[in-house]
Every structure is written in structure tokens, then in C-alpha cells.
Amino acid sequence: MKLLIIYGTTEGQTRKIAHYMEAILQNAGHQVTIADTTADPPEPKGYDAIILGSSIHMHKYHSAIKHYIKKHLEQLNNIPGAFFSVSLAVASGLDEENLEVQKITNDFLEQTGWKPMMTTQIAGALKYTDYDYFKRLIMKMISKKQGGATDTSQDYEYTNWDEVTKFTNDFAKTASQKQ
């Protein structure tokens, strides 16, 4: 199967997850093209399935992901698709945080008109060492409120790689059955 993965990232965790998915799919024998939304990604035409992913910042996904979906909406709705959302809120374990992330995803998909077969919420990472002073301070306060890590001298990765593997394999299996 010929798959396309397009992602939008701010601090790099979504890129890391997208490349992890790429490796899983390639190891399963699929042909995979991967691109960042900021790097003039290819259109979905000619691909058997697509995975789109974006991180959430300030309750919004990357505008480039939204633009890509709107530009290629008809093609996207005619091939099997999956959407993965990356945020720290998923790592909190708080029901209200997880419901909010799901609402952001549902609203986003409704606004764009894209109807992917599958969606998932993936915990991101705290990259304290990459943040400027003010962002580090804000992220520390948010993390403390949620009972998370506050030692800003190191980074914390909350991504559950087993869940990413399962989602990727489930999508590939479902998408290949649609052909």
C-alpha cells in the first residue's frame, strides 16, 4: 500500500511520532512518503491512504494542517484517512482534559469537513530545555497544576509508543481492507 503521512509540529514531538509511524509502516512492507506541512507536502492523489497529524497549542491545531485539509478535502474524503492529535493534556490523566482535547479534535474535523476513518489522541512531551524563559515558566506552572514534572533542567516524554504502534497497525489493516 502506498501511504502518505503529513504532520504539523512546533517542538518536534509530532515529527518524531510521524517518523515512528513511517518506520512501522515501512517495516510492514508499505511504501511511505512523509512531509511536514511547512515543506510543500504532496497532494493525496495517487496514494492509497493518508495519515495527518498535528500538535495542539493554545487549543488549536497548526494552520498549515487546516489549510492542507481544506485544499485537498475532496481527495482526502475519497481515500482511507487517519488523524492523530498530539498534546500534553492527554498525559494529565484528567478526564476533563481528555474530553477537552477530544472536543478540539471533533470541532476541527467538523470545521474542515474531513472525515477520517480513525482518530487518536497521543500524549506529547515537555521540552523544557528547548523553551525560552517565559514559555518554560508557563509550562512549569501548567505541569505543576496537573501533577506533572517541574524540574526544568530536563525534558519529559509522555508519548505511549505501544499505543502509537497499535494505532498505526490498526489503521494500515483497516485501510488495506478498504481497497
From TrEMBL:
Location of the Flavodoxin-like domain: 3-142
GO BP terms, alphabetized: heme biosynthetic process
Pfam families: Flavodoxin_5
Cited SUPFAM superfamilies: Flavoproteins (SSF52218)
MF term (GO), any: menaquinone-dependent protoporphyrinogen oxidase activity
InterPro entries per record: Flavodoxin/NO_synth, Flavodoxin_dom, Flavoprotein-like_sf, Protoporphyrinogen_IX_DH
PANTHER family, per the entry: PROTOPORPHYRINOGEN IX DEHYDROGENASE [MENAQUINONE], PROTOPORPHYRINOGEN IX DEHYDROGENASE [QUINONE]
NCBIfam families associated with the record: PRK11104.1
Protein name: Menaquinone-dependent protoporphyrinogen oxidase
Organism: Flavobacterium degerlachei
